[in-house]
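@here heads up, posting the sequence + SMILES for the calcium ion run so it's all in one place. Ping me if the SMILES looks off, I pulled it from an old spreadsheet.
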Amino acid sequence: MTLSFARLRYVAWLGCVVCIACGDDSGGQTSDAALPQTQAGAGGSSGASGSAAGAAAGERSVAGSAASAPRDASTAGSAATDAATATDAGTRDAAVPDAAVTDAGPSDTATPDAGSVDAGAGAELPGWKLVWNDEFDGAKGSKLEASRWVYETGGSGFGNNQLEFDTDRAENASLDGNGELTITAIKESYMGRNYTSVRLKTQGKFEHLYGRYEIRMRLPFGQGIWPAFWMMGADPNNVGWPTRGEIDVMENIGREPDTIHGTLHGPGYSGSNGIGSPSKLMSGQRFADEYHVFAIEWEKDVIRWYVDGKLYQTRMPADLPNGSKWVYDHPFFLLLNLAVGGEWPGNPDGTTTFPQTMKVDYVRVYDRAG
Ligand SMILES: [Ca+2]
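bot reply: prediction finished. Complex structure tokens:
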């Protein structure tokens, strides 16, 4: 394991995936101190901190998600622009949800179907050019491709007091033979821990500046279960976390089955003070019931978060606390993990069932075309 336990000094309260992250960088990056991720966490509270936008954003629910709105591929190219405009206006997320702000694209089209597996082909997205992806095609039982992913193994708790030991075993992560990655959190005694799972990253394999980052997946569920798709800033100069920056594309904690969180962590706004907003499904729905597409569009001075093609949050430098710095103008790498327990989600209890399975159809990264 690559973590430097010493670094994991602080524990964040709310969800910092990051924290998680922090520990991660193998290597000696000094400062990656661990840290917490967070925030977002806490649901509505997230963001709050000094961000003007924080408040407004909190309420937005991207209801209707999947099933309801058919996506219009043709809007894809301009979507971002429109969104940004709406946002600037101050209406921020509010304005956008339903509108035509779609991520559009063939990919989303597939999303609506509940149990659908492998949206398959169709990585083309109007207005965007695919620059990196994993469709998880391959023989049943195979592990992830070493050319794309690094298994971040260990049971340090990643600064969040997570309970699992993250392994590189096929039992915890393997292709299902039908175009999907299956990540499984298992309750078992392993290396001094009582749960095993997986934490993947593209550090050193794929680090990229700006673009659209999209994942189609079906979440696991249950108290203490904490899936996340997120990004950490590459850190060649060892500035450490949170100065290196963290973008949480999607986090979910089991006790909020209808809610996901998108969050930024940077210097002066990390851990429980991260800047973020939740997105909720309509009453009675759970993210674990269907596949959903989670995405961000990251450009200079603006990051937009989407669920099933609907924009629910836009963040810009003006949203940060006074005097704090926007640290999102350098390459980031991707992380995909399924944590068990920890400060933010709390630990599993008698209602939690194992194994818990997270299915991932694809991860795709695009640059703006042209
Ligand atoms: Ca696939």
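MO: The radius of gyration is 18 Å.
MO: One more: The longest helix spans residues 76-95.
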